[in-house]
Amino acid sequence: MIDVRAVTLAAVAAVALATPLACAHPTPAPAPRFAAADDAAVRAVLAAQQDAWNRGDLAGYMAGYQRSPALVFTSGGNIRHGWDETFAKYRARYGSDPSTMGKLGFEILGVQPLGADGAIVLGRWELTETPVAGRGVFSVALARTPDGWKVVHDHTSSDPPP
């Protein structure tokens, strides 16, 4: 004769043991985050741009921008799209020689992470030793790309004349 109580007890025990295993999920990997090294890498992009500019290396300066038609550059009330158009405008305005490009300085006021793969940099710029000298503010959006951090959107404005 079958002991119904023993079979029921065994079935309950089997379900009780199997339920946690069936419901268990692997622990997800921690979500990527914007780390101190990312902040340093973003700042390094702008430092490399400043250094390239001050050497008269316009192509080196432009290496900080994502080489893409999706690049957006806003300045002087104009919106430019794409790396090629941005480079052409810089070359037409400043040339590619230290004597015409002058000396560029950036003051980074803050780096604001946008998730793990993006950041906004707010800062001030000053251009001296050139006929087109000036100063103003900028905000640039950078994205983590396979080629490192790159500027994907630049909004630069000039201070009013004194």
Structural summary, described in words:
By secondary structure, this protein is an alpha+beta fold. The protein has one domain: Nuclear Transport Factor 2, Chain: A, CATH 3.10.450. 37% of the residues lie in helices and 33% in strands. The protein has helices at residues 4-23, 36-54, 58-62, 83-94, 98-101, and strands spanning 72-75, 78-81, 103-113, 118-128, 134-145, 148-158. A six-stranded mixed β-sheet has the order 2-1-6-5-4-3, covered by helices on one side. A hairpin with a 2-residue loop joins strand 5 and strand 6 (148-158). The chain is elongated. 15% of the residues are buried.
Ranges where pLDDT stays below 50 over 5 or more residues in a row are 6-22
Order of helices and strands: HHHEEHHEEEE
**Rg computed from alpha carbons, rounded to a whole number of angstroms:** 28 Å
Question: Roughly what percent helix?
Answer: 25-40%
- CATH classification, class level: Alpha Beta
- Determine the structural class based on helices, strands and strand pairing: alpha+beta
Largest sheet: 6 strands, mixed
Shape verdict: elongated
Give the termini separation. 104 Å
Tally of helical runs: 5
Number of strands: 6
Give a quick summary of the entry.
The protein has 162 residues and is of the alpha+beta class.
